[in-house]
Design a protein that fits this description.
The structure is a homodimer. Chain A is an alpha/beta fold. In chain A, about 35% of the residues lie in helices and about 20% in strands. Chain A is built from 14 helices and 17 strands. Chain A starts with a strand and ends in a 5-residue tail after the last strand. Chains A, B: Keywords: Mitochondrion, NAD, Oxidoreductase, Transit peptide.
């Protein structure tokens, strides 16, 4: 029995307050040899272990990539189908038919590339390829839900790539435990999403949609629109989360002469804060009642899931407008619908739902004063070209055994990125 | 027969290239004594006459105002009706029911105040009061069309006030010839309109409306939206007209990282131009083919009426987006509808039509890829409060015989404001 040094696997699992570091190496016959070490969370030992583990994993990944680049890979892409729209725009690469524009490149390198939109259930096209695929590419717009069960079944899986931003459709602890790498194209559509947020703020605040509906229905009733239409100027806008998208939104809001607030775990550096002109609110519950408009810009994690429930919404000002392009599951679905019906929330807009596609009976389709669409803000043609290029770049690095741009990793070296912990 | 010095009327009419200055004085028996002087356009004599006329008129107006403040006035307001929406918002002052919030104040001063939305035809409520009203207040959102015929009939009329901005519903040469004063509340809703323009740019460019329609119809088809959705970042935006609203739009566009162009008669001062970051385009026809997005921000005058016809639209880039919150009659209605149908124009949005209310069969209601609403952008609740205060201020000055803020005058001292000449 001889160890095959290039195929070392390094696995970190997290369970409760204890972490167990497992260093295993795939033997020639494929069976793992586990080495288990108990590790106390929060201790200095943990930090030491992490550092040591990082170095080891760095070598392990490089080794694996060098190994994997030698052979042909099975890559599966799950995207939304374009159908009749596929040929309408040569830059429409984000759909099944466009396949990120990388089919020729992948096949010329000897890899196989399966693309589908059929992602749900045991009889789906995706399910057929789970067992032997090496790479899965999917998007937040038409997410392939990568559960712990699917990860267990995916014995060859090495890499999960998100064409876009937001990898919450993946069971990240399970992916980490299985030693997979999860990465997204950070920054590829932050501008797209921030622009869309500002659009939805204006649509709701200015009461645009009833006016549009009047036009197409042959009507004309200015009062029916104007009695609840407001300027953005002078209003208080608060963002829950001021990461990449939140900051881009604040920058775009600046010339509108609003009162800008932000809540986040950390304060933006003072210079940027001054430039943006937004005030830090350490206590979310203290910020909520001050806002005329609240924008959700936080990732979906176990901490933020269902965060905006009935109690949280009750803390907001009566007549508040909420825009959420982050993730649907951050909200309590029924609490949002109820608050729109009662009028406590004067408008709710966004492009994210749970699950996606939203079922026909999803209450947000039918609640009053909404500005909802399918999940589109991050999949403009401009964004598609950027995230397609980002996916190609990461695949190229994967084949060559090179690291990805650091900010793209969601799971790297056995550890979740900090915002997912 | 004795002249009544406080009731001097000073009338300037313009006809072709000749101006005739008529100085008349109402006699005690009411008949005018005209004094007519030929005046060559463009000559130095004209400038001299204008200066002299201005001084004379200044005295005449002051005298008239002093005279008129003594008696009670009949003031007519034409606004849109709110009906069921009237009581939904205490700040909803811009409707018939709200009556600008000045009824109590006017009546306490002994004036009569008639308010209606019934403005068309010889049997309308407005028509009943034309003969003896002193002041007419109307809005661009539900305009009372003040024709030369109506002006002729309105023997007591002294003042035409626009609650808002844009007085093209008034036959301005006829109003000037009749010695009337026409004024609006300049600046009262420029921010409101600029915000709305940016909203419509985003709605069209990002293809929001088909997504919204999918949601309410129980559908989900990301491709149907995404295949023609774009970011604003990096696009070329040109404004035709860079007055108050055009500049506010450019300032709000700045953080979107667009290529900003503007066409106007005059260049913005270099410092402001640098601050806004927009490039001056002297030749409109040279600017049009450069733009991904064109925004109309020019007043409706005889020069701009029907300006964007088939030929002008053909000069624009295929796939251009047009936003027009200025006036509907600046466009050739059918040319716009045809260009949207052919796809040469990828989207057309705005809130202005001709006539208003738009008839049920107006082609803009039914053309593809539009983002039209009734005329609402300048009548947000915030704007209503501002223009109601502005109207009250001008009425107060009128009663006291004081001048209005200079920028409010459309017709003053027998001369049209420069942009209407």
């Amino acid at each position: 029995m001889r160890w095959r040094s290039l195929s070392i696997k390094f696995i970190v699992t997290s369970g409760g307050r204890r972490l167990t570091l497992v260093v295993s190496s795939v033997l020639l016959d494929g069976s793992p040899l586990p080495l288990s070490l108990p590790l106390c969370s929060g201790s200095g030992i943990m930090a030491m272990w992490r550092a040591a583990a990082g170095k080891l994993l760095g070598r392990a990944l490089a080794s694996r990539a060098a190994h994997t680049s030698a052979g042909s890979k099975k890559i599966v892409g799950v995207f939304y189908k374009a159908g009749e729209y596929a040929d309408m725009n040569p830059n429409f690469v984000g759909c099944v038919e466009g396949a990120l524009g990388i089919r020729g490149w992948l096949e010329s390198k000897g890899h196989s590339y399966i693309v589908t939109d059929d992602k749900e259930g045991l009889n789906s096209e995706l399910e057929k390829h789970i067992e032997d695929m090496h790479v899965l590419i999917t998007t937040p717009f038409h997410p392939a839900y990568v559960t712990a069960e699917r990860i267990k079944k995916a014995k060859n899986l090495e890499l999960l790539l998100t064409a876009g931003i937001g990898s919450d459709h993946i069971d990240l602890p399970a992916a980490a435990a299985a030693g997979l790498t999860v990465a997204e194209v950070t920054g590829s559509n932050t501008v797209s999403v921030a622009e869309d947020e500002l659009m939805r703020i204006l649509i709701l605040l200015r009461n645009f949609l009833p006016g549009y509906q009047q036009v197409v229905q042959g009507e004309w009733n200015v009062a029916g629109i104007a009695h609840r239409a407001y300027d953005l100027e002078g209003k208080t806008v608060g963002t829950v989360g001021a990461g990449r998208i939140g900051r881009l939104l604040l920058q775009r809001l600046k010339p509108f002469n609003c009162n800008l607030l932000y809540h986040d775990r950390l304060r933006i550096n003072p210079e940027l804060e001054r430039e943006i002109g937004a005030k830090f609110e350490e206590d979310l519950d203290a910020m909520l009642p001050k806002c005329d408009i609240i924008v959700i810009n936080t990732p979906l994690t176990e901490k933020t899931r269902g965060m905006f429930n009935k109690e949280k919404i009750a803390k907001m000002k009566k007549g508040v407008i909420i825009v959420n392009n982050a993730r649907g599951a951050i909200m309590d679905t029924q609490a949002v619908a109820d608050a729109c019906s009662s009028g406590h929330v004067a408008g709710y807009g966004g492009d994210v739902w749970f699950p996606q596609p939203a079922p026909k009976d999803h209450p947000w389709r039918y609640m009053p004063n909404h500005a909802m669409t399918p999940h589109i803000s991050g999949t403009t043609i401009d964004a598609q070209l950027r995230y397609a290029a980002g996916v190609k770049d990461m695949l190229d690095r994967y084949f060559k055994g090179e690291d990805f741009p650091e900010q793209n990793y969601i799971v790297k070296e056995g550890q979740l990125a900090s915002q997912y912990q």
